[in-house]
Amino acid sequence: MAVNLSRGYTFNAVLPAAVAFAIAAVPVQLPMVVTDDPGVGHPGSGQGRRHHEAAPSTETLGSTSAINTDKTGTLTLNQMTAVQMVVAGHRYAVEGKGYSTHGRINRAAGQAEIPLDQFLMPMVLASDAVLSDGGLIGDPTEGALVALAAKGGIDAVLTRQVHPRIAELPFDAE
């Protein structure tokens, strides 16, 4: 901040950047380290928890290595569901849950009907997922897209037979 002020920048221009850099410099673990546990006293003061007692919340946070959250039912139900689709400026609502092929793709009233096959066919051809009786063999994201295509009238097995895959390039981060 001092260097920028000496270069002629105004205080109002320098302050936000200085605050942002100061916040960014704080290590992620620091707030947990500096949190004051009122149950822990100073040695010899007779205050606080006994040596064998630990603050449950502090102990739990200190030993946490991962926090899992639910995203659209993937963790709790092990299923993903496409619920909306936007194509060429048109928004569609998708009925149905999970990997069931029962449901429809509904458009808003007043929107022109456009053919969706050109958008749904790649969802089937670019995936290896197989749906069977509401179950899935394959990747959850691919399964959700194949189910979406089925709700739009695309038969995955027949489409893959008519348009067989010629080659496959596996993903490579390089």
What's the helix and strand layout?
Blueprint: H1 2-6, H2 11-25, H3 30-34, H4 56-62, H5 74-77, E1 84-87, E2 90-94, E3 105-107, H6 117-125, E4 130-132, E5 135-137, H7 140-151, H8 156-162
Antiparallel strand pairs: 1-2, 2-3, 4-5
Helix pairs in contact: 6-7
- How many DSSP helices? 8
How many structural domains does the protein architecture include?
2
Distance between the termini: 40 Å
Mean pLDDT: 77
Helix content: 25-40%
Spans of at least 5 consecutive residues whose pLDDT stays below 50 are 36-42
What characteristic shape results from the CA principal axes? elongated
Q: Order of strands across the widest beta sheet?
A: 1-2-3
Radius of gyration: 28 Å
Q: Element order, helices and strands?
A: HHHHHEEEHEEHH
Query: Could you tell me the number of beta strands?
Result: 5
Structural class: alpha+beta
